Each structure stands twice: as C-alpha cells, then as structure tokens.
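Quiz preparation item.
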C-alpha cells in the first residue's frame, strides 16, 4: 500500500507521506520553463502538458503524491462564464444580483471536464508505482465567492449579502450537478483520492457554516460517494478551527486539511482518531534563508513527534496552504529530506 493511501486509512507507519498544495507552480523552474512556451490555460487543458507540469516536482523533490495540474474555477466556465488568467483569474460575468443567475447554466457541454480526466490518466502513466495521485475540485462556497466577487481578495461583502438574499442558495442548486459531474469524471480516471479546496470556508461564522453551508457540502459529497464509495475525500477549509470541525459530526470525508494558523499537534490529538489530517507547516517559512528555514522546520517536526505515533498514522505531511511563488526551491527539497530523515530515524529508534 502506498504511503498516502495508507495515511488516509490511518494505517501508515514510519515517515509520513509528503505532499504540498501547489507543489507544481510558479516557484519552480520546471513550471517557469513550461510557461515561457504555453499559457496557463493551454497547460491546464492539454493533458500531456498538465501531466508534465505535475511531474516536475515529483522528479525534482520526490514527493509521495502528485496532484492534477488544473484550476478550481473550471466549473464556472462550464456553466457559461468566460474565464481567463492574466495572470490571476478573470471572469467575464459576476453574480452581483439575483437576475445574474440566468447566466449560469447547469446543463453543461458533454465531455467538458474530460481534459482533467485525461490529465489524471497521463500523470498516472508517468508516476512510479509507489506514488499516489490526487484529483481536486473547489469547494461550493469558494466557487460561489469567486462567482460573486471574481476573487477572494478585498471586500467580499456582496458575497456575504448573497447568503441571505437568495443568490447563494440558487447558485448552489445550479452548481450542484456541475460540481458533482466534475468529481465523478475525475474519479473515473482512478486517482487515489480527491481533494476539495474551500479557501473561503472561514469567511462564514460558525452558525452560518453549520446551518447554511454544511448541508450543501454534505449533499454533494454524499451523492459523489454513492457513485464512488471507495474514493476518499480530503477537505481543506482555510480559516476553520476546532470549533468548526466539531460542527461536522458525521461529515463524509476521510481527511481534514489544517491551515497554518492552527496548532497541528492539538488538532492531531483532538481529531486524529476520527480523520486523517493534512498539513500544516507555514508556507511563508519556505521563503526564509536556509538556516532560518531549517530551524523552523526542525521545530515543526519536533512538535509533531510529541504526538503519539498511533495518531500520526493518519498524517499527511505538508503545508497549511499552497506553496507561494516566493518559496525557495532548495527549502522545498530540504523539507522533504528532513521529514523523511526525522521520522525514519524516530521509527528506527523505537
């Protein structure tokens, strides 16, 4: 059994699997060289290019899992909203008022998401057998915020207002079959799991998260699992903490992603018997000079070693968010090496 798959089952022993969000991206020379010749959209929508970009950090840093190279916003494009990147996402329309819902079509073109499925298959063909493969989608709330605001930066008051003026509920009903289809098409390509990235989750109060949002989130994951019961889900909700996680109760996921603002050792002790946990080294530390970075990484691994080994069997070692464009490649390489050395040595000592 591969290491990430074992961790998702909370059965991993020895060094944890290592995977980073955005491990293929702007900080990496391999990706930069690809972008000289191809646009971001061209890379995403050309399966051979997407697979090659996904493999860059696998070859360079020896991560334990590759992730589909794509973007969370393609469901909005599938619904009829023009999408470009210059370099960040640019949507041609926004959900400013209820009347704008007419621009969103839940009956999407046949085969729209096939480029992602083929990219997964081609990435798998390039991976060595001991490596895992991750698909991904955006969380419904995050797609809603982007539909309204165009980004997750600055004033998001219109998206907040839409929670109560009917836009959110109506948009989610249109999005539901699209996102479900996206997840199923990826699952059919047989990744080892699918990650759902919900970077706007923490923008909701605990009450709104539990009462307004979690029912929709549970519905889409439950329906997905009716078709693909054996495909685990990693759910990463940025800005969530233990008070939110306790609201999830029987939430149908396998793994919780933990952002860098939480105490990972406490999260492991409180929730490690219920979920596999992914995270949560601060991505900003990857930008530090080498000696400072090594000290921060050593502190992180030392802290994680205080967690009982039984609970760490479900730990996926990585970041509390994605690799930033300012990250130093050598720090990424050293992080992987230090994690393996630290926990392999610990296992040997035990």
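Solution:
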């Amino acid at each position: 059994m591969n290491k990430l798959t074992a961790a998702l089952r909370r059965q991993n022993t020895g060094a944890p699997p290592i995977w980073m969000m955005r491990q293929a991206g702007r900080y990496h020379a391999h990706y930069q060289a690809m972008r000289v010749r191809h646009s971001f959209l061209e890379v995403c929508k050309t399966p051979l290019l997407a697979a090659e970009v996904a493999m860059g950090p696998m070859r360079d840093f020896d991560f334990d899992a590759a992730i589909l190279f794509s973007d969370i916003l393609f469901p909005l494009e599938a619904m009829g909203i023009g999408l470009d990147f210059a370099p960040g996402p640019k949507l041609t329309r926004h959900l400013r008022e209820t009347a704008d819902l007419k621009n969103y079509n839940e009956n999407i073109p046949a085969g729209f998401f096939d480029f992602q499925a083929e990219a997964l298959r081609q990435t798998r063909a390039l991976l060595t057998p001991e490596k895992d493969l991750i698909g991904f989608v955006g969380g419904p709330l995050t797609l809603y915020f982007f539909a309204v605001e165009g980004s997750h930066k600055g004033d998001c008051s219109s998206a907040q207002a839409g929670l109560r003026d009917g836009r959110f509920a109506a948009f989610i009903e249109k999005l539901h079959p699209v996102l479900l289809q996206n997840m199923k098409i990826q699952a059919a390509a047989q990744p080892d799991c699918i990650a759902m990235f919900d970077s706007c989750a923490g923008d909701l109060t605990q009450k709104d998260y539990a009462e307004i949002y979690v029912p929709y989130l549970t519905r889409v994951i439950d329906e997905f699992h009716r078709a693909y019961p054996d495909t685990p889900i990693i759910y990463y909700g940025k800005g969530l903490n233990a008070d939110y996680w306790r609201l999830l109760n029987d939430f149908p996921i396998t793994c919780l992603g933990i952002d860098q603002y939480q105490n990972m050792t406490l999260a492991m002790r409180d929730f490690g018997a219920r979920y596999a946990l992914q995270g949560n080294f601060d991505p900003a530390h990857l930008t530090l000079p080498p000696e400072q970075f090594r000290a921060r990484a050593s502190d992180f691994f030392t802290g994680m070693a205080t967690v009982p080994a039984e609970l760490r069997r479900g730990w996926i070692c990585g970041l509390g968010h994605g690799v930033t464009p300012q990250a130093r490649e050598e720090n990424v390489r050293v992080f992987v090496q230090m994690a393996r050395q630290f926990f392999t040595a610990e296992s040997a000592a035990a």
